[in-house]
């Protein structure tokens, strides 16, 4: 599927003289890599959400902050949109390029600038892989807590853009809870520092505003992250259930008892079978659901918590509980969960990964709703959850070669997100809005709230050149989507349509 850019600036995109723009970019610096041949651009046409594709006007791969600044200044002067891209592992189309825009790829910013084991911090460039931070910190007994399933490949800049989480975010938080500072360049090339080296900084918390902004406010060129001591002890329980709803109630019981596991993940039978066939993690393939519950800390406390969790699982009706025998088995249990997405890709020609968040008490209800929606649309759904914090990842299985199946998968995904909103949740937990969920923004937020989002965007990027058409819908789009009330045929905030 190709994406037509319809979130316009001043009614339509400014005309771009492609040859002149490429020549101007190449003239900025002999070392600046500029890709413009068709075969060089094609690999950048999408991010992890491959259903949407768009070939950029050109791709620029800077290696210095000065080069980034020069590219941004040139783009601002010529009115050319800029989309930033990291490792391209995002799952919401947030890094999908524009046909009339520059794709700014930050992959060459891949150095760990410093690591301070005493302060428990590391200064890293945005292209540094998530896992590489923990590998560098390991000799000091430290690690970086957020661990998305794509951590072997995803970059810290992308993690900041999407506020990524991972299987251990229940106890240790998302990206926003694990960074101290971010250095950013605006579209005009101005350098801004959000946050600071200390645990708190004066003034507004602009670092939290930046985190999850999907490259719409500025380009991240450096991040200071927090490093944590490795827990003395970590043990994983795997609980099997003959009913998915029982597993949902078990999650509520564990959290309700005041126990905060390092990770609390859930998989249904379809996901279990796919992961076991791929990873051989030792999952019970006949179970309708499993919970993976990791408890960490001092060994005596961990053993006490394991006993309490066992009792809560039995009370919820689990059929079996297994504790990982050793570190190798603990890692295998987690490997199955972290490879659930590619595992599902082995049993279906295509799948559409959703990302929504719900109150934990609504887990069983939402699971029933997803099952009913799957039957209504005639598509299977494999459910994988960060169950402890209510972040769901339903995987909708389909075959794009069958006419209409992609459209049904998209429609089903939208209905699942709307169900999340209906029960008091959100349309995203860690994958961002990007291109994928922009219509559902109209469902979750009011016109006044969307107007406020546009005002924030305009404060940093008044020309609307950074990643336009993503994350924040225009009110015109919402009106067309049918999710917003129009008074007497007029939009409430017509002046915002220029963004």
Can you lay out the helices and strands and say which pair or pack?
Elements (H helix, E strand, L loop, with lengths): L17 H11 L4 E3 L2 H4 L16 E4 L3 H14 L3 E4 L16 E4 L6 E5 L4 E4 L5 H8 L4 E2 L12 H7 L6 H4 L6 E7 L5 E5 L10 H5 L8 E8 L1 E2 L3 E9 L2 H13 L6 E6 H11 L9 E9 L1 H18 L3 E4 L3 H12 L1 H5 L5 E4 L2 E2 L5 H15 L3 E6 L4 E8 L6 H18 L15 H7 L2 H14 L14 H7 L18
Parallel strand pairs: 2-4, 3-4
Antiparallel strand pairs: 1-2, 5-6, 6-10, 7-11, 8-9, 8-10, 12-14, 12-15, 13-14, 13-18, 16-19, 17-19, 18-19
Helix pairs in contact: 1-3, 8-10, 8-13, 9-11, 13-14, 14-15, 15-17
Concise overview:
This protein has 499 residues and is an alpha+beta fold. It contains 17 helices and 19 strands. The chain is globular.
Structure write-up:
The N terminus and C terminus are likely disordered. The two termini are 24 Å apart. The chain is globular. The chain has 17 helices and 19 strands. α8 runs antiparallel to α13. The longest helix has 18 residues. It has five domains: 88 residues, Uridine Diphospho-n-acetylenolpyruvylglucosamine Reductase, domain 2 (2-Layer Sandwich); 118 residues, Uridine Diphospho-n-acetylenolpyruvylglucosamine Reductase, domain 3 (2-Layer Sandwich), CATH 3.30.465.10; 110 residues, Alpha-Beta Plaits; 75 residues, Alpha-Beta Plaits (2-Layer Sandwich); 61 residues, no CATH class. It is of the alpha+beta class and 499 residues long. Helix content is 35%, strand content 19%. Strands 12, 13, 14, 15, 16, 17, 18 and 19 form an eight-stranded antiparallel β-sheet that branches. Strands 5-6-10-8-9 form a five-stranded antiparallel β-sheet.
């Amino acid at each position: 599927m190709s994406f037509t850019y319809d979130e316009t600036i001043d009614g339509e995109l400014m005309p771009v003289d492609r040859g002149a723009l490429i020549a101007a970019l190449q003239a900025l610096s002999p070392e600046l890599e500029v890709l413009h041949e068709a075969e060089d651009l094609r690999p950048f046409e999408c991010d992890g959400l491959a259903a949407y594709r768009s070939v950029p006007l050109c791709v620029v791969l800077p290696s210095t902050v000065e080069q980034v600044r020069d590219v941004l200044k040139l783009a601002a002067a010529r009115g050319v949109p800029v989309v930033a891209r990291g490792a391209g592992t995002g799952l919401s189309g947030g890094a999908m390029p524009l046909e009339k825009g520059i794709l700014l790829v930050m992959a060459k910013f891949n150095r760990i600038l410093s690591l301070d084991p005493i302060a428990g911090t590391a200064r890293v460039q945005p292209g540094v892989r998530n896992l590489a931070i923990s590998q560098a910190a390991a000799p000091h007994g430290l690690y970086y807590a957020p661990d998305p399933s794509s951590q072997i490949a995803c970059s810290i800049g992308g993690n900041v853009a999407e506020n990524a989480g991972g299987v251990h975010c229940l106890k240790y938080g998302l990206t926003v809870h694990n960074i101290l500072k971010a250095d950013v360049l605006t579209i005009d090339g101005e350098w801004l520092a959000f946050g600071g080296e200390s645990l708190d900084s004066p003034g507004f918390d602009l670092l939290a505003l930046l985190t999850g902004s999907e490259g719409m406010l500025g380009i991240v060129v450096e991040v200071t992250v927090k490093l944590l001591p490795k827990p003395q002890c970590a043990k994983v329980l795997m609980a099997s259930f003959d009913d998915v709803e029982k597993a949902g109630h078990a999650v509520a019981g564990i959290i309700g008892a005041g126990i905060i596991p390092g990770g609390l993940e859930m998989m249904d039978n379809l996901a279990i079978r796919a992961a076991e066939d791929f990873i051989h993690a030792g999952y019970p393939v006949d179970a309708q659901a499993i919970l993976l519950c990791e408890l960490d800390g001092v060994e005596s406390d961990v053993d006490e918590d394991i006993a309490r969790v066992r009792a809560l699982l039995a009370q919820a009706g689990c059929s079996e509980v297994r504790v990982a025998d050793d570190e190798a088995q603990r890692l295998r249990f987690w490997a199955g969960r972290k490879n659930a997405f590619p595992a599902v890709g082995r049993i279906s020609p295509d799948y559409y990964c959703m990302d929504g968040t719900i109150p934990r008490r609504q887990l069983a209800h939402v699971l029933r709703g997803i099952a009913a929606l799957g039957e209504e649309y005639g598509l299977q759904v494999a459910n994988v959850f960060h169950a402890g914090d209510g972040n769901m990842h339903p995987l909708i299985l389909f075959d794009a070669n069958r006419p209409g199946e992609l459209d049904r998968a998209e429609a089903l995904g939208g209905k699942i997100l709307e169900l999340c909103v209906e029960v008091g949740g959100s349309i995203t937990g860690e994958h961002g809005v990007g291109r994928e969920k922009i219509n559902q923004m109209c469902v979750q937020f009011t016109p006044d709230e969307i107007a406020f989002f546009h005002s924030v965007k305009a404060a940093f990027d008044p020309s609307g050149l950074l990643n336009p058409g993503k994350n924040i819908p225009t009110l015109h789009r919402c009106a067309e989507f049918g999710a917003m009330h129009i008074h007497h045929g007029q939009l409430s905030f017509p002046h915002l349509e220029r963004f």
